[in-house]
Amino acid sequence: MTESDLVAKPRPTITEENRPFWDSARAGELRLQRCGSCHHVRHPIQALCPVCLVDEFEWALMSGRGSVFAKVVYHRAFHPAYRDDVPYNVVIVQLDEGPRLFSNVVGVESSELEVGDRLAVFFDVVDAELTVPRFRATDPGES
Amino acid sequence: MTEIAIVGVGLTPQGSLPGSTNLSLQTDAFKLALADAGLEKSQIDGVVTEPGTTDMHWALDYLRFSRAVGINPAFTGSFAMGGATAGALVQLAAMAVQSGKADYVACVFGDAAKTGKKRPLLAAGGALGTEAANNGAWGAYGATTWSGLTASRHMALYGTTTEQLGEVAVAARGHAVLNPMAMMRSPITLADHQSSRMIVEPFRLLDCCLVSDGGACLIVTSVERARDLRPTVVRIAGSGQGFTSQDHECDQWWYGPHQKDAVDRAYAEAGVGPADVDVAQLYDNFTISTILWLEHAGFCGVGEGGAYVEGGRISLGGQLPVNTHGGHLSAGHPQGWWTVAEGVHQLRGEAGDRQVEGAEVCLTTGRGLVLNTASALVLTGDA
Lengths: 143, 383
Hints:
- The complex is a heterodimer.
- By secondary structure, chain A is mostly beta strands.
- Chain A is 9% helix and 36% strand.
- In chain A, a hairpin with a 5-residue loop joins β1 (31-35) and β2.
- Chain A is globular, with a radius of gyration of 16 Å.
- Chain B is α/β, with parallel strands linked by helices.
- Chain B has 13 helices and eleven strands.
- The interface between A and B is large, with 43 and 36 residues.
């Protein structure tokens, strides 16, 4: 995906709750919410810990290392802004720290990407306001 | 405990019905179900509805329907559990009858999803709120996303193949060919499946369900009352629901552990197991769904669903005929409602060319939303 392609695409709705996630991405960091009581790292972003129901948390720095948990390759653009991108992949990334999240793996043929492949985060600068965490495949030795 | 029956089935034509609305399809189905049961509308004292997929969050659906058909029910409400709703509403209706809150409960659905109002363009799961809608930042759009992710992992862990997915599509189409109401009535081969265009890998076009307009209504009452209305009574011998409310937070979510829970609960209540099931109607929004249900319902082990569907095992005449109407893949998509209706038709012996001879026990299942919801019914005939 190139920068110009991404401009017209749907942008995340930034809320007080998720702003630190997107601000961290702009700073080149992947941060998720870690419960202040039971230390569970949660995702998707929400107000309370789904394990122990405590509200207090910190935005914990993730290593950005993980693997492909599941993947799909879109050959049809359900959103017209992605028409020029097909075929493109969407993966669930299994982070080494435990949480799972949606992302894209860039720099590989989508059809060659396999469940279990090792990944590392990088920060795709869309424009001055938006940076999106995406992933690159890494050699097993690198991670 | 009072034994419960499905006494009336109403199924409108399913397909492309220009000019229809969610409400017109509901009321058409209701009239058909009343006629099927031999009931007057004044006898219906319970109404539970599923809002159409184009109005999924519309909580006032029950009121609009009752108003249109001039009913003041003693028990009512609307549920939105995606493809699990039909089974869940039949369960709710059975509980209402069992507890004496109502005598005849109409479960109603109508959806002009093909020619009517369009569904909003939301990211995958976006109906659940802002964070899920933000999945659009990674291009995750379309209902195909969730089951596609599931299929990719099932294929990676268990060696399930695209040809095995194709076997499911071919079996469903073979049944649709025998069903005069089905949308897709031309036979297909495994080669047709393999050459159909890729939609969301690993799914080709023929791995995906249809979109259709259509309505359905099921009327639930006691077996005792049903006996006065019909020569053959179809019992709700067991029912169950199951939920995995979280997605990324649950490491087994992709596999749908709640689907096994729902089936196990229905089996336990009915006092049956997989070996007792003669015919199964398993919610097939995608071909992988049928394979998962076969595992969840204990017809084969975890990871063995792909091999199970080979060799015509789920076709009419096979070991376990599945989706004898043609399923969501080839008959039509009144999400989960035709599944239950077909179960009733099979147990009444009214399934025509697709009748499973001597069918006495039918399992029907539903799954929905972001792979969160499941329902199951064990229906038994009058033998």
